[in-house]
Amino acid sequence: MKIGNLLKSAISHMMVWATVIAVLCIAFLVTVSYEATKASVQVTQNGQKELIRTHADTIDDLLSELDVTVQQHDELSHNLSDPVEYGMDVTYIASKSINLAIDRNHTEEYFTTASTVEEFFEQEGLEFNKRDKVSHDPDALIEEGMDIEVQQAFQVTVNDGGESEKVWTTASTVDELLQEEGITLNELDELNLSQEEELSSDENVTITRVEKVTDIVEEEVDFTVETKKDKSLPKGEKKVVSSGEKGLITKEYEVILKNGEEASRELVKETVEQESKTEVVALGTKVEKKATVASSSSSSSSSSSSKASTTVSRNDTSGAKTLYMHATAYTANCSGCSGITATGINLKANPNQKVIAVDPNVIPLGSRVWVEGYGYAIAGDTGGAINGNRIDLFVPSRSEALKFGSRNVKVKILD
Predict the structure, then answer these.
(1) CA neighbours within 13 Å on the CB side: how many for 334?
(2) ∠ CA(222), CA(225), CA(229), 5° rounding?
(3) How far apart are CA 66 and CA 114, in angstroms?
(4) Which of 101, 170, 195, 382 has its CA 20 to 30 A from that of 183?
(5) Which segments of 220-370 does DSSP mark as H helices, in order?
(6) DSSP letters of 156-181?
(7) Which CATH architecture has domain 96-151?
(8) Sequence-distant (≥ 6) Cβ neighbours of residue 192 within 8 angstroms
């Protein structure tokens, strides 16, 4: 009885194990069969390759299995409705949002699947020159939310101290341009535009180089000749009583140079190094008496002759006071000149008027004078630098003034 029970138990266990083994075999076969029916697909996602085995029917199903949602600007090698086939290669690149600003005027958002900045420009058909300024290198990788700035170069004219050239620049202000070109402004230099002013195409930027220099000039001062009447000398005879000596003065000028050329000159200091010494000349006035003729006719003739000898020509200057003076020339058309003399003569209205500027302490204003090399004139003007034995002769033009230059002349005071 016991043996029969044991046999039944053994057979029962064997049947259980057989059933388990059968189920496992069936599961294995099903699994193997399921896996065997999967399609092998290579998926490249954002540059990363992966071999996928899938039962997906379409590309859309395949991407769904990979948790990928295709957006409008993404790049996909196949249509979403395409069927999945064994051995196919599916490429998917997600687009990235970037911002592009050109010349700081407008910022536009782009969606791109480009991997580099250069590739992005090519995709969008954007071309820039080497002189243009781009915020990123061409091989810089595109990143989500990237801000790319481009400043396009334009031409401006730069005149630096008289030398002009056209330059390409991406500077937004005059100051940036100066820094870009390595141009330094000195304290006195002049700029035609404000440094903060915005630059635009074909702008003219002019720099005037200004220098302030000191010019020291030594000038001789002619001595004054004083004529004294001497009754002991025959009329018209001259004799030097004491010799004159020239003086010496030093003049210090402040000179403004613009682009290397003199723009203005101002006398700031005048020093007398040596005083001039007046020359004294004796002029004879002694008249020899003529013998008296007895006859009345002779007497009448003598009287008539005497009267004739005392009639002086209009231009006779033998009795005038003579001076030797240092002369220069000036015009009425200088910067800031009114053309009206100290005595009210309008030189611009009377360009041929003979007028000289004098020191009233030497030659009284209004005096009629004769000047060697200039002729008869009126002492009708004064000048800040006209002191002592100096005169300034009015001429119609600057060229005549330059031609006259500076010279020593004889001056006769007629009245």
Answers:
(1) 14
(2) 180
(3) 22
(4) 101
(5) 296-309
(6) EEEEETTEEEEEEE--SBHHHHHHHT
(7) Roll (3.10)
(8) 204, 205, 206, 207, 208
Q: Which amino acid is at 50?
A: E
Cα 221 to the chain's mean position, in Å? Answer: 43
Two structure tokens written together for 13: 């266990």
Tokens, residue 276: 């001039």
SS3 call for 306 = helix
In this structure, which topology does domain 39-93 adopt according to CATH?
Ubiquitin-like (UB roll) (3.10.20)
Which pLDDT score is estimated for 319?
61
Using CA atoms in the order 169, 175, 181, 185, what is the torsion angle rounded to 10 degrees? 150
CA-to-CA distance for 76 and 86, rounded, in angstroms? 18
Contact 329, 404 (CB under 8 A): yes
Rounded CA gap, 262 and 268, in Å? Answer: 16
Alpha-carbon distance of 93 to 123, in angstroms, equals 15
Region 60-69 average pLDDT: 89
Residue 334: alpha-carbon gap to chain centroid: 27
pTM above 0.85, yes or no: no
In words, the CATH class of domain 210-287 is mainly beta
8 Å CB contact between 388 and 221: yes
| pLDDT tens-digit readout, 197-222 | 988 888 999 999 999 989 888 888 88
